[in-house]
Amino acid sequence: MSDAAMTAFRELLGPDHVLTGDAALQRYRWDTTPDHPRIAAALRPATVEQVQDIVRIANAQRVHLYPISTGNNWGYGSAQPASDDAVILDLGRMNGILEVDTELAYAVVEPGVTQRQLYQHLQAHKIPLRLSPTGAGPDCSILGNALERGFGIGPNGDHFLTQCGMEVVLPSGELLRTGFGHYEGARATYVYKWGVGPYLDGLFTQSNYGIVTKMGVWLTPDPERFEACYFMCNSDEQLGPVIDAVRRLLSTGVFQGPINLLHRNRVLIMLDRYPWTEMNGRTPLDESVAAKLAAEKRVGIWNGVGALCGSREQVRAAKQTIKRVLKGKVDRLTFLSERQLGALRLAPGLWSAVLRMNVRELLQTLEASFGMMNGIPSEVALKLAYWRHKEPPPTGAPLNPARDRCGLMWFAPIIPMTSDHVSTFRQIVEPIFAAHRFETCITLTAVNERCFDCTLPLLYDQTDAEEAQRARACYAELVEACKRHGYVAYRLGLQSMEKETGRDDVFWDVVTRLKNALDPGGILAPGRYAR
Ligand code: ADP
């Protein structure tokens, strides 16, 4: 970056908010993927006007900006830009919860607002609304996940569907308000997604067309009754019938929000780290060791989890329907209410004997997964990043797999919700993971009644160069093999961005044409979805 640009940014933000040098930039370089682009500096604006001025300076001085909200984006590149020598635009100081409408159940948030912050705000003000947390942990932003079109658990789990109304700083420095937001005094900006005229919000997700500085998010009113539903299958053959049952239950609205079907391996990686001693340092995990661990922890080969909420009558009826539809298809079906969880908490020893499982050990995970479906952000799913790590996560600080140099790359293709598709998909991916000596840890997240978002973590030891190289090769093979069969990821990370968006394809060509129209100077996040 030129001296003139640096001077202009320092004058605008004050020297404390223009970061340069290795120590100050270290946090932005933390990442769980093997790619590490060069970062020129980081800017920390506090207002939308400062963001507009930054963009104007960037145009004049030919600086590339890479906006982040909290910059975690685990397994997809974290805060790292998609090109070398960009300046990180860290929006974390803009962390205002600008409005919460209790009656209409929405919040308006700035980019730096985290899941923890929104949750604590709702609690502190006794606002009877809930958010849908992601598995990424309490310190991730609300806005970043919606912009990546990510998914959470519990009701309102599709975060782009529940986004409503944006304020965007364009690469020109102009301020765009989407939906009805650009009409003076508009009343319905945060309650009706589509506005009038072409729908523009989608353009600012998974793209590099603008910097989003404000967003409306729909929340869920506290239900009269909430219960979690857990089910388990002991044999792989049960998966097909369970998939048909899940599709039926979702299409009739029995469950609210995504249902997750977790393979045994996926549960094991959330509970513990790799059993290095038992495996004598060898990888991947032997089937016999995996089966033994699963038996100890009472984990099925497939494990289902979903949320039920509504009136007492609705939840009662939903439970009856679930029992009927899953009858004969699963080996265990349990519903858990707050009251039952309280009983387990009070007498774990007694319940361990009654349920023939180690309730004390399970309670922590159960509480966290129950809480997540109930709108309480947790680190329960993030722990998986430490699976192949040689050290346990540090205690007493929030988990940060990027800081701790864990190796994680997410691959998340969308699979139509039939047993045939899931079976074909597994036949493609499982041998590839095995050939590269990694475990296949599938979760099938039923994000609607027609498809699964299959989240596959590729977990490796980032400190082991040979294993990191294998992980990279494995990832590339997975992407290509799945694409050949028509299964494509819903989201890209640094590990696949360039390859995917560089295709000779009318779609990516139109994406580039839009980029050129909105950002002729090419200042905003070059290489992020658009060139
Ligand atoms: P989180 O920390 O919540 O996982 P990030 O802040 O890392 O999310 O955001 C995910 C990705 O979305 C980032 O890599 C960035 O490219 C993009 N992004 C995040 N916030 C904004 C924003 N306010 N405007 C435009 N793009 C953004």
Describe this structure in words.
The chain has 531 residues and is α+β, with helices and mostly antiparallel strands. The chain is built from 16 helices and 19 strands. The protein has helices spanning 3-13, 22-29, 48-61, 115-124, 142-147, 239-251, 264-271, 287-296, 312-326, 338-346, 348-355, 359-373, 419-435, 465-484, 497-501, 506-518, and strands at residues 18-19, 39-43, 65-68, 86-90, 97-101, 106-109, 129-130, 163-169, 175-177, 211-218, 220-221, 225-233, 256-263, 302-310, 332-337, 406-411, 414-416, 443-446, 451-461. Strands 12, 13, 14, 15, 16, 17, 18 and 19 form an eight-stranded antiparallel β-sheet that branches. The protein has a five-stranded antiparallel β-sheet with strand order 5-6-10-8-9. The chain has a four-stranded mixed β-sheet with strand order 1-2-4-3. It binds adenosine-5'-diphosphate. Adenosine-5'-diphosphate is lined by residues 67-73, 91, 111, 136, 140-141, 143-145, 147-148, 211-212, 525, 528.
